[in-house]
Amino acid sequence: MVQCLSHTRTLRDYCLQKKYRQEVSSRRKTELMNAFSEVLSDLWTTDMSTAVHPGNFNTIFKESVPHFIGYSQQDAQEFLHFLLDRLHSEINRTSPQNQPISDLPESKYNKLREDKKAMLMWKHYLEREDSKIVDLFAGQLKSSLRCSSCGHESTTFDVFYDLSLPIPKGSVSGGRVSLKDCLALFSQVEELKSDNAPMCDRCGKHTDSTKKLTIQRFPKILVLHLNRFCASRFSISKSTATVSFPIHHLDLGDYGTECAGKVLYNLYAICNHCGTVHIGHYTAYCQQERGWFCYNDSRVSPVSESQLQSNKAYVLFYEME
Ligand SMILES: [Zn+2]
């Protein structure tokens, strides 16, 4: 994950140039950000034949997220969540006392057009959360609920830093699916019935409803998590399906609002997981000026574009064109 972030050029340059020091008050503690920038700086200045030891970063990260102390296997996507969250709070440009200024009464809000609602929610978010991490990774997801008995529609807008995509069932035992199949499953209309039935504001009770997710605002850096780990009641299983994904010009326009048009992304890093639910190993494929490289602990070796797709791909990093 650190390798993938280290190949996120805008973030890397921001860290190497210590730009956050100009953005936040000098009294603000930026311990984790300093340690993270230190690792990036070592990675990009040390000559390729020596490995970098991120010991200090590791210690500070674990102090900040005690749940990661010890040597048991942790989930890379979970690590990314915590890391981005902690880095963001250290370099947040808004002050903690900032209260949202522009609160609208609910009755007025409900009368707004959908795109106005989305814009307002986004503005509210930025009043409290505003950093380089937000600039790069934050997107907005629209969730529309429709009551099946009265037809009432309600929408909510949530900020996301990655999208967790389900892998179609039936492909668990090593089949082949495409990223499009995963995206279709993610954005398909979902029926919410009986125990899952949500409360309808108009009916005033829990009713059968449908739910649909749409990407309202696309982030500059799109992190796609291929959700290979599927929890059933008694166990967790891992899907070893090969998910094929485009390296160039991934178009997500179909998953956005009607006026989105083409929204194109290019792949620049992949976090791979091999092994089982309980024991495994992470590697990264990242794109440099000189092509793609595989980062496997202290070893770095070139890989060709045709080798990037495998059943180990776990988290994909795309940059908007
Ligand atoms: Zn209703």
Main features:
18 strands, alpha+beta, eight-stranded mixed β-sheet, four-stranded antiparallel β-sheet, 10 helices, 321 residues, 29% helix, binds zinc ion
What does this structure look like?
By secondary structure, the chain is an alpha+beta fold. It has a domain at 1-94. 29% of the residues lie in helices and 31% in strands. It has ten helices and 18 strands. It has helices at residues 2-6, 9-16, 20-23, 31-45, 55-64, 76-91, 106-111, 114-128, 132-137, 179-187, and strands at 139-147, 153-160, 163-166, 176-178, 190-192, 199-200, 205-206, 209-217, 221-227, 229-231, 236-238, 242-244, 250-251, 264-275, 280-288, 291-296, 299-303, 313-320. The strands form five sheets. Strands 3, 9, 13, 14, 15, 16, 17 and 18 form an eight-stranded mixed sheet that branches. Strands 2-1-8-5 form a four-stranded antiparallel sheet, covered by helices on one side. A hairpin with a 4-residue loop joins strand 14 and strand 15 (280-288). Helix 4 (31-45) runs antiparallel to helix 5. The longest helix is centred in the first third of the chain and has 16 residues, at 76-91. The protein binds zinc ion. Residues 147, 149-150, 152, 200, 202-203, 207 line the site of zinc ion.
Q: Count the DSSP helices.
A: 10
Shape: globular
Backbone structural class: alpha+beta
Please give the radius of gyration in angstroms: 21 Å
Tell me about the largest β-sheet: 8 strands, mixed
How far apart, in Å, are the first and last alpha carbons? 22 Å
Mean pLDDT: 91
By DSSP, the count of extended strands is 18
Helicity range:
25-40%
What molecules are bound to this protein? Answer: zinc ion
Strand content: 25-35%
Could you give the order of the helices and strands? HHHHHHHHHEEEEHEEEEEEEEEEEEEE
Ranges where pLDDT stays below 50 over 5 or more residues in a row are none
